[in-house]
């Protein structure tokens, strides 16, 4: 819920409150993303929806809009730990782009981490790793932080 709510509202709703909000969002007419399955088991999650539904992005100095073009934003990409390193991130990115296109998007934007070293703690990689997006055809359009590029791909 972090990119959808102002920080204060997110903090007040931590735990059960935010969980209820997420459940309501999932049941709404605007699902917040995709689940990835392997062998009938959920192994990945990718949050993608129109940027205008993600208020925190507009309030961010680093992730502020690049231009006026309407974009769909990938704000979260998680792969279960025992499934990492098998191409699931790229598959989820491809599925997210296809989902966005099916729902009218022309451009998808992502805000992954671009690690400076060989390894980084998993907790900092919840937006995905830049190399997976590049492998899926995303191109860097601006970088306002050493480790957080804004990448885009036409649908």
Helix-strand category: alpha+beta
The value of Rg in angstroms is 15 Å
Mean pLDDT over the residues: 86
Sheet with most strands: strand arrangement: 1-2-3-4-6-5
The end-to-end span amounts to 25 Å
Helix fraction?
Answer: 25-40%
What's the structural domain tally? 2
Question: How would you describe the overall organization of this protein?
Answer:
By secondary structure, the chain is α+β, with helices and mostly antiparallel strands. It folds into two domains: 30 residues, no CATH class; 124 residues, Aminopeptidase (3-Layer(aba) Sandwich). The chain has a six-stranded mixed sheet. β3, α4 and β4 form a beta-alpha-beta unit. It is globular and about 35 Å long. The mean pLDDT is 86.
